[in-house]
């Protein structure tokens, strides 16, 4: 990757809807060159799929929670079942395997505190793979970004 590739990545992180012409103008390259570079970055798995970010509160998902999870045990079958649960639940936006006292950190959204409580009791804690969970409610986001520092 050279400086032009990094410029392309910065611009696309800021606005994934840029036309090839607009992108080319911003990075100082031709539209054809930008198109070839984007295709090469996609082929190298540097660029993933293009999405639009949705404002959670605007669609009624007013509650955001960081939920720490400890598995009941660390057998491969338990981990596989837990990770299948993660994939099946759309309210779980992110999941990270973490070090320390807990095994995973989830970011979960819900319409209300009651909705989150239902998820916690009826889904997460009711799952045989989960040994314990602790929740931290996000009061407000002071910084939230999807852009990597390039």
Question: Which terms summarize this structure?
Answer:
single chain; about 150 residues; alpha+beta; Arc Repressor Mutant, subunit A; Alpha-Beta Plaits; 4-stranded antiparallel beta sheet; 4 strands; about 40% helix
Would you kindly provide a brief summary of this structure?
With 150 residues, this protein is of the alpha+beta class.
Give an account of the 3D structure:
- By secondary structure, this protein is α+β, with helices and mostly antiparallel strands.
- The chain has 2 domains: 41 residues, Arc Repressor Mutant, subunit A, CATH 1.10.10; 81 residues, 2-Layer Sandwich (Alpha-Beta Plaits).
- The protein is 39% helix and 20% strand.
- It has 5 helices and 4 strands; from the N terminus they run αααβαββαβ.
- β2 and β3 form a beta hairpin.
- α1 crosses α2 and α2 packs across α3.
- The longest helix has 13 residues.
- The model has no long low-confidence stretch (mean pLDDT 97).
Give the DSSP E fraction (strand runs of 2 or more residues).
15-25%
Largest sheet: 4 strands, antiparallel
Order of helices and strands: HHHEHEEHE
Number of domains: 2
Q: Structural class of the helices, strands and pairings? A: alpha+beta
Poorly predicted residue ranges? none
| DSSP strand tally | 4
Between the first and last Cα atoms, what is the distance in angstroms? 11 Å
Q: Overall pLDDT, averaged?
A: 97
Major sheet strand order = 2-3-1-4
CATH superfamily of the largest domain: Lrp/AsnC effector binding domain/regulation of amino acid metabolism (RAM) domain
Q: Quickly name the level 1 CATH class of the largest domain.
A: Alpha Beta
Number of helices in the DSSP assignment: 5
What is the oligomer described by this structure? Answer: single chain
Overall, the morphology is elongated
Estimate the helix proportion, in percent: 25-40%
CATH topology of the largest domain: Alpha-Beta Plaits
């Amino acid at each position: 990757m050279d400086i032009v590739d990094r410029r392309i990545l910065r611009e696309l992180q800021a606005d994934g809807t840029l036309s090839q012409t607009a992108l080319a103008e911003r990075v100082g390259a031709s539209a054809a060159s930008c198109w070839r570079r984007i295709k090469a970055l996609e082929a190298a798995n540097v660029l993933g799929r293009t999405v639009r970010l949705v404002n959670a509160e605007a669609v009624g998902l007013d509650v955001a929670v960081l939920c720490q999870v400890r598995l009941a045990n660390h057998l491969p079958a338990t981990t596989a079942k837990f990770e299948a649960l993660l994939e099946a639940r759309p309210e779980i936006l992110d999941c990270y395997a973490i070090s320390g006292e807990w095994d995973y950190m989830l970011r979960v959204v819900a319409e209300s505190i009651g909705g989150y409580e239902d998820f916690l009791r009826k889904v997460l804690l009711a799952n045989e793979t989960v040994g314990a969970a602790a929740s931290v409610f996000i009061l407000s986001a002071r910084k939230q970004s999807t852009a990597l520092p390039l």
